[in-house]
């Protein structure tokens, strides 16, 4: 056998992922785009329903309150997604509710000034107004870091080696939201997992009129089949005598959303009353805003790659973070009970979300910005038409968890793909990547295990906002990975390692004019770059 040449076993690094039918600024036909947008909307429903379902009862709210919060979360999420795709990073990303805010929100809920209110309705309103006030104040963190370009300056310390653990743990950090949730209702979750893989991968070459129907719409087809199957099991009484937890994860009528939802309801600012402000609540919420910023940065890097675009320059990243801060401000004004992000991190309860839409870009091989904007339209439309939105929200969460097993894995793999620009024969790089990924998983796992056994986080001083800071930041895999990887990458054998770190490739994407393709992908619409030129 002849010797194999090195070029025969290696693949040249590529700035953009290949094989995409539509990239960020190319669009499918209107019919196909609408169907794909609806698919993204269905996927976004999981987090939009789960956050209010968990938090609203703790606040003393009724089923009617829960429905209104779900509608508000979807409505504001649709607005924020439109803003982000038009004026922010312009990447095809869904903006939605975030579990990153869960720890400080639960602290507010358990505040003695609210928990002692006897009337449930009054307790719900007072708690909601306090959460609104904390979100409004804490949103200033992202607004300031974004619009002042300070976050863009911070990104000068990032490199491909440092970003691999961060982007990877945007996906890997969600492993508890995958099969552990599928296992809560295996008769629905496992068939969904198998069917989705079969349609999106093994049967993806089957086309109808040159349209790869099964690959493009594997999610919609799989969900429709398993949703119908779950509904048949529900109405036939299969879960009638099963434990409450099983019914919650398997039944299609578990959340009482359809009966409680109004036909038409338009969310509006200050609908719960005037927000109240407390310095301790606001400081605690700022940690969640910072975690949201870090994880969104990783998600934007992944979204750019899965949209077949170049990495977003520092100016574009800062612009997106600034608009994301405006989004959290809107969350506070409308009362969504949570801040928003392009991704939802791991948290003490091990529930997460919204990176799934980033993964769906890769599964469908469609990274079109227009598709996401249409999805935002669906979010706004169905949040106003309450009954229709509640109907789709009756999909068992186990079905979403089966899809997450695939899509979060895709996002994690995109993070690993940045290794192609680095020297992985370098012990320095192996050390940084390995230690950052391991600690990024291990430290949040410690915080979760401690909280589960002690009913409080490892940080439990007399200062509540400080506890929220520590417990929130170190419960996020991506944030821990960023802290560890960026520190090691900028202090360990820093000199003369630029090529090993991948900096010759990375540096030209730092500035807007560093690569000619940036103008094509990230220029503002309506000729706004004349008034807001790239810095």
From TrEMBL:
Keywords: Membrane, Transmembrane, Transmembrane helix. It is found in: Membrane. It comes from the Eukaryota. It holds the Pfam family Xan_ur_permease. GO terms for molecular function: transmembrane transporter activity. The chain crosses the membrane at residues 38-57, 69-87, 93-109, 130-151, 157-176, 188-205, 217-239, 371-393, 399-418, 430-449, 469-488. The keyword Transport does not apply. GO terms for cellular component: membrane. It is a multi-pass membrane protein. Belongs to the nucleobase:cation symporter-2 (NCS2) (TC 2.A.40) family. This is Nucleobase-ascorbate transporter 2. It comes from Dendrobium catenatum. The lineage of its organism: Eukaryota, Viridiplantae, Streptophyta, Embryophyta, Tracheophyta.
């Amino acid at each position: 056998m002849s010797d194999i040449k090195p070029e025969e076993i290696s693949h040249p690094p590529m700035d953009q992922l290949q094989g995409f039918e539509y990239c960020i600024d190319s669009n499918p036909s209107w019919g196909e785009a609408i169907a794909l947008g609806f698919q993204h909307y269905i996927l976004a429903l999981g987090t939009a329903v789960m956050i209010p379902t968990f938090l609203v009862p703790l606040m003393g709210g009724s089923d009617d309150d829960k429905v209104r919060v779900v509608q508000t979360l979807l409505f504001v999420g649709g607005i924020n997604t439109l803003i982000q795709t038009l004026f922010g990073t312009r990447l095809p990303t869904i903006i939605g509710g975030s579990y990153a805010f869960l720890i400080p929100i639960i602290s507010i809920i358990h505040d003695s000034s609210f928990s002692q209110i006897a009337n449930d309705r009054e307790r719900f309103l007072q708690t909601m107004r306090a959460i609104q006030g904390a979100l409004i104040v804490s949103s200033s963190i992202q607004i300031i870091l974004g619009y002042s370009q300070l976050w863009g300056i911070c990104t000068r310390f990032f490199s491909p080696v440092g970003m691999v653990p961060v982007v990877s743990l945007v996906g890997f950090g969600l492993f508890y939201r995958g099969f552990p949730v599928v296992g809560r209702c295996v008769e629905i979750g496992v068939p969904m997992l198998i069917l989705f893989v079969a349609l999106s991968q093994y049967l993806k070459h089957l086309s109808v009129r040159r349209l790869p129907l099964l690959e493009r719409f594997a999610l919609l087809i799989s969900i429709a089949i398993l949703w119908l199957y779950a509904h048949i099991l529900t109405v036939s009484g299969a879960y009638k005598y099963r434990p409450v937890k099983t019914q919650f994860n398997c039944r299609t009528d578990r959340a009482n959303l359809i009966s409680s939802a109004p036909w038409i309801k338009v969310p509006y600012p200050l609908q719960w009353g005037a927000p109240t402000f407390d310095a301790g609540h606001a400081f605690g919420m700022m940690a969640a805003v910072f975690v949201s910023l870090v994880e969104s940065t990783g998600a934007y890097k992944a979204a750019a790659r899965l949209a077949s675009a170049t990495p977003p320059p520092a100016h574009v990243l800062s612009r997106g973070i600034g608009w994301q801060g405006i989004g959290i401000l809107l969350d506070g004004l409308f009362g969504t009970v949570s801040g928003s992000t392009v991704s939802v991190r791991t948290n003490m309860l091990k529930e997460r979300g919204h990176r799934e839409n980033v993964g769906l870009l890769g599964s469908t091989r469609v990274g079109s910005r227009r598709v996401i904007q249409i999805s935002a339209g669906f979010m706004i439309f169905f949040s106003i038409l309450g009954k229709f939105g509640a109907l789709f929200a009756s999909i068992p969460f186990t079905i979403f968890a089966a899809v997450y097993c695939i899509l979060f894995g895709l996002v994690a793999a995109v993070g690993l793909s940045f290794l192609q620009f680095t020297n992985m024969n370098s012990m320095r790089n192996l050390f940084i990547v390995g230690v950052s990924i391991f600690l990024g998983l291990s430290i949040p796992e410690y915080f979760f295990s401690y909280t589960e056994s002690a009913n409080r986080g490892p940080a439990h001083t007399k200062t509540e906002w400080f506890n929220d800071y520590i417990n929130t930041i170190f419960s996020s895999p991506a944030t821990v990975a960023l802290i560890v990887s960026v520190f090691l990458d900028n202090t360990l054998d820093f000199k003369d390692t630029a090529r090993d770190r991948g900096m010759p490739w990375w540096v030209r994407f730092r500035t807007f004019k560093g690569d000619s393709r940036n103008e094509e992908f990230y220029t503002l619409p309506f000729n706004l770059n004349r008034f807001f030129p790239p810095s």
